[in-house]
């Protein structure tokens, strides 16, 4: 955990150095933020609210019986935890909340598979779409993002092929599960009772079955919700930039959206809580490359707005959501008993003790 915080502070220092090198003083950043008018404030708040609703909608669509209200509470609660605590804390919180509402490990796995799978494929594929779109309309700003986008598409293609092959072959799914189990248990140096290769192979076969069934049951609404969320977050960054004076002459729409797509790609795996430090560094470097090093104060102000709404906001909402989860008794239900092997696999993946039954 200490390493996470050292890395976070180092990245934030790098962001500050980038901005100071480009002469973005605090007074200039404050002046840029002061430009934000009531219309822009309303637009930013409406977009932020819609983004949160789409997260809840995605969860509600991915798990039958959850509903939009609990979907929102689930997302906000797990996000608040993952934005503050390193490691798979958000995933563990999601499992704990779902179990307290009477959902099974299979329900948790199915929700995670469908929502994460769809979102990750979007994040991997969208950079090339955004950059290609910018090139079609004659916006030359993305520049070197072509190379990063190509890497994202290549990785996405490989993962997609593996996923399709695993879905078509139960034997391959079991084999991939056993291999992943060996890697996880070897990397851990587990002191307690570990799940066996057979446990992981069985879990992978169950994952394959759950993913197929989950896609058939809710693939379309989950995809629509995830795509809507992705687009609206891109619009939120664009509106944040325009609100602080980073206009089209300084940073074209294509350039800003390309930076957003690359930011999502490079933060697909969170190495710090909420990607803090990493996100700011990527956005700062990307937007400075788009403006040619100009308008550093406006860039800093835009990032303050965007990250304040997408990082700090969910922490505040999440605190309220965790209180609702704790005190709304009618949502509570006894979780079903689970197979010991499945529980052990889940425990190892989350690096936590298995749930009590």
What's the gist of this structure?
With 357 residues, this protein is mainly alpha-helical. It contains 13 helices and no strands.
Explain what you see.
- This protein has 357 residues and is mostly helical.
- 77% of the residues lie in helices and 0% in strands.
- The chain is globular and about 60 Å long.
- The relative contact order is 0.17.
- Mean pLDDT is 76; it is low at 181-193 and 351-357.
Percentage of residues assigned to helices = over 70%
The helix tally amounts to 13
What general form does the structure show?
A: globular
Q: How many domains make up the coordinates?
A: 1
Please report the total strand number as a whole number.
Answer: 0
Mean pLDDT: 76
Computed structural class: mainly alpha
Distance from N terminus to C terminus (CA atoms, Å) equals: 29 Å
Stretches where pLDDT is under 50 for at least 5 consecutive residues are 181-193, 351-357
Please trace the helix and strand order, writing H or E for each element.
Answer: HHHHHHHHHHHHH
Strand content is under 5%
Largest sheet: none
Radius of gyration: 21 Å
């Amino acid at each position: 955990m200490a390493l996470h915080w050292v890395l976070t502070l180092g990245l934030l220092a790098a962001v500050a150095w980038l901005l100071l090198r480009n002469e973005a003083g605090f007074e200039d950043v404050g002046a840029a933020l002061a430009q934000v008018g009531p219309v822009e404030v309303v637009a930013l708040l409406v977009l932020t609210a819609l983004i949160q609703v789409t997260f809840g909608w995605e969860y509600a669509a991915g798990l039958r019986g959850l509903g939009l209200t609990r979907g929102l509470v689930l997302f906000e609660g797990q996000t608040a935890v993952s934005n503050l605590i390193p490691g798979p804390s958000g995933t563990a919180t999601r499992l704990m909340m779902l179990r307290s509402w009477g959902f099974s490990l299979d329900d948790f796995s199915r929700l995670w598979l469908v929502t994460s799978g769809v979102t990750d494929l979007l994040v991997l594929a969208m950079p090339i779409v955004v950059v290609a779109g910018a090139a079609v309309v004659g916006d030359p700003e993305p520049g070197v993002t072509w190379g990063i986008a190509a890497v994202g598409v290549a990785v996405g293609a490989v993962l997609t092929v593996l996923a399709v092959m695993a879905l078509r072959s139960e034997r391959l799914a079991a084999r991939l599960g056993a291999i992943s189990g060996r890697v996880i248990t070897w990397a851990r140096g587990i002191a307690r009772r570990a799940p066996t290769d057979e446990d992981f192979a069985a879990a992978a076969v169950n994952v394959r079955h759950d993913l197929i069934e989950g896609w058939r049951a809710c693939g379309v609404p989950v995809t629509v919700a995830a795509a809507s969320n992705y687009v609206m977050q891109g619009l939120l960054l664009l509106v944040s930039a325009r609100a602080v004076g980073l206009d089209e002459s300084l940073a074209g729409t294509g350039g800003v959206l390309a930076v957003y797509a690359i930011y999502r790609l490079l933060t697909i795996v969170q190495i710090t809580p909420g990607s803090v430090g990493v996100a700011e560094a990527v956005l700062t470097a990307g937007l400075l490359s788009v403006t040619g090093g100009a308008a550093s104060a406006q860039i800093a102000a835009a990032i303050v707005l965007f990250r304040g709404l997408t990082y700090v906001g969910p922490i505040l909402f999440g605190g309220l959501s965790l209180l609702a989860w704790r005190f709304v008794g009618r949502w509570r239900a006894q979780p079903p008993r689970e197979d010991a092997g499945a529980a052990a696999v889940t425990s190892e993946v989350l690096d936590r003790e298995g749930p009590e039954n």
